[in-house]
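Record type: ASSEMBLY
Status: queued
Input:
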Amino acid sequence: MAVVVAVALLSAAALGYEILLIRLFSIILWHHFAFMIISLALLGVGASGTFLVFARRWLEPRFHRAFAGFAAAFGISAVACFALARRVPFNPLEVVWDLGQQAALLQIYLLLALPFFCAATCVGLALSRFRERIGAIYRADLMGAGAGASLVLLALFVLAPEDYLRALGGLGLAAAAVIAFAGPGPRWPAGLLAALALAVPFAWPADWIAPQPSPYKGLSLALHVPQARVIAERSSPLGLLSVVESPAVPFRHAPGLSLTAKAGPPPQLGVFTDGDGLTVITRFDGTFAKLAYLDQQTAALPFHLLRRPRTLILGAGGGADVLRALYHAARQVDAVEINPQMADLVRRDGGGFAGRLFRTPGVRLHIREARSFVEATGQRWDLIHVGLLDSFTASAAGVLALKESALYTVEAFEAYLARLEPGGILAITRWLRVPPRDSLKLFATAIAALEGLGVAAPGERLALIRSWNTATLMVKNGPLTAENIAAIRRFAEARSFDVSYYPGMAPEEANRFNRWREPFLYDGTAALLGPGRERFLEDYKFHIAPATDDRPYFFRFFKWRLLPEVLAIRGRAAMTLLEGGYLIVAATLAQAAIVSVLLIVLPLAWMGRGEGAAPGAPGRGRVMVYFLALGLAFLFVEIAFIQRFVLFLGHPLYAISVVLAAFLVFAGLGSGYSARLAEHRAAARIGPISLAVAGIIVFAGVYLAVLPVLFGWLMAESDPVKILVSVVLIAPLAFFMGMPFPLGLRRIADQAPRLVPWAWGVNGCASVLSAVLASLLATHVGFAVVVALAMGLYGIAALAFAR
Amino acid sequence: MVTSGFAKWARVGAVALLPVLEVAPAAAGDTAPLPRADGYAAPRQEMVRVIEAIAGYAPLSPGRRALSPDVLDVMAEVPRHAFVPEALRDRAYDDRPLPIGYGQTISQPYIVALMTDLLEVDGDDVVLEIGTGSGYQAAVLAPLVKHVYTIEIVPPLADRAKGRLAAAGYANVTTRTGDGYYGWPAHAPFDGIVVTAASSHIPPPLVAQLRPGARMVIPVGAPFLVQHLVLVEKDLDGKVTTRLMLPVAFVPLTGGH
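Status: finished
Output:
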């Protein structure tokens, strides 16, 4: 019993730690570096298996002391290793210039791998020591992890990330106390550990563990300005929001302001998310004349085609787009913002500043994820505007390359267009890059969406304009009229913006004010609308084919073909053409694969061939294939379905916590049931593993086909209904997915017990590879294929252990 | 050769107290140019060779096939190592950006040369720089123009750059600590403007302070990663246009489209 409790506590702490580290490193660096660092640190789990192959014999007789020791080590190292890792001077922006950065990165991996190693050693040791209770221990592992995942997401609403880190350290010590209490020998160590569990969380000095954003992030830069200071801060799993006031040198955020503009914006407060991604709260005292700059940006174009439009703003942020709509006398403004704390900041702290923007008559604020708001609503608008909320730095450095976005897919565009009144306009503004990427991909996406809706001549409904650093795409619900086109040309001409496309545009009109060597955008849009579209998408050196819900990676522009060309001219300032983000993830996979091979192969030399194995026991090759396949497949399915359910449930946080918790809890129940299944099926022709795998393949296959339709029907249902449906759907799939691991482990525990820790390590390594591989694969082939691959892997596993 | 300790501290104090106070360059008598026999002549020559080689492939101004020899001569003269943190001096002449603290960098030498070249300045010109940073760009411009006015927002960086520029003997550079958004109206119009501080838009006051026929250069990208350059041109009628340029020869399409 104590073992089960201790394993559950430790698993809850370790999974919470994993999520927490992503949060902390998102504040310090950028999200995908966080993803990479944590992925590699998780190889500590694989290393624990390797370690146990060697140390099992010595540790098993001292199980309670060993478990308590490693659990306590987790409790201490979880905090201490983070404190050390945050001091390592790693600068991802410098990676292309300085290979020495790799050494810094390695230090961070190694430091953060230690706590995972300690926690996993405890669980691996428990599985190896209590072979007859593998199902129950694995159940505790999964259910503890499920609880830990939910807990961390809830806790991050009330606790700063670094404070929850303290608590997790305490949880590790508590697990140590529980196991020490149950062990033989004196009770005082248990008492001491319990006291430490309560005391140590408060003992860590605050400045050891506070996450410091990289000096190159917008927040850090802003705070170097004299008199600038953070006047408010909010923290949640959606991010750390910092409001900065800079009275001496105010923020003046006005992307793409016309060169002919006479004045910039009035004073603004800056709001940074995780130290970057600036959005501003603009001072508004009710005098619209001071907001003239809002009409001098490319995003103002649709207001020159529509009279007092009912407007939907997707991504309200600090409210600049809402102000723009009010400036243009919009009859009604619906503003959708995902982060309640962001809206709260505008309402409260910025209230005096922003003139109670969200309480202006005609303005309604909706706290929802934008895509699901659109999917669920029955309303229609004259104008739907998708705002520009990511920072240029993030965009330019490619740090979003593997960030999923449900806002910029073909299906999303179809949904937006379906919510437009006849003659209404969808407008999207993005940073302009050289050579063009985002703008062309938006254009291609709009064409695909219009074609998907059965529009025969998409080109009649599209217009694209640009300044020197932003581009705005317009998609009209209906053909653009001569009057519309005249308005577009007038608007652009007066502000020195370039028109890059409108129906019937003459080539000499392109590339006049903000000139490229060639009219890339004009040529690009022409190619995308013409018969040579596929060829153009193929030949263009960046990936600009539209993103879909199955491959929701709008921000990935990298093509492998680009790499040799850039490397060939690398001495010539060419490295910045590469998307750092994508390559970093690819590098992560390569590094993880190398380390995994070492961790898996190393113990083989130590383990005598077949020594102590029962006749008919699976050999090492089959054991490796089985646990490798399971480790890969489990996370493939989990990650792919999380992505599907996020879209359905709308809010990524609720979705991730509901889906993750449901997966882990029902998999845990499946694991617990597996022992009984094994008894029932002991003599059956179809063994328990085959049965479980068949269950997984059937449910995953059915869901793959049915979920898109089902979710379409249920999109407009209330949240509780959707959550219930999600849990009910996940339950049977996860239940079966929880079985193959304990069933297989139980079998080798009976027949070749020396292989148990090794199998644990193989599975741990495979899980790391799986998470990275799933993201990379999904960017190329989509999530449906990832699920199909998982089904294949489960099949391979079943064959490997078939009798 | 440096101004007395007291004078130096008095200036630092003045800058700290009055962020927008204009500070005159160091007294002329104190600023005889450093002899360039500084032990870095060889790496500096190598750096210029690298810049020249890269520029051979880069898209320069229309009708130009190489960087101006004057710019290259200056690059071969300016002691870049004096503008980087001490710990990074051995890498000062590598063709790469280096950190200088406060989240800022000293730009890649090739980019500095390219930007300087794009300004097309001559000995009578008065140039404004927004974002002094290390002071290196100002030092490169100084021998090519009549005067450089440069503004830095972060006081410690501004102080450091000012000290370096004075120590290296650049008498025709005037530094100021403060907000660059409104330019420097007292010395406008300018024959060239370099904006090295990131901005979401080109400040209208800077456009206004550009003399007809003059150019403004803005590097765009993330720290350490200049993605492209924006060249703002104001023609003789006062009409303003920009040119978006990659610092590298690159065609986004294969197959000779």
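Annotation: Chain B touches chain A through 60 residues (CB under 8 Å).
Annotation: Chain B is about 25% helix and 25% strand.
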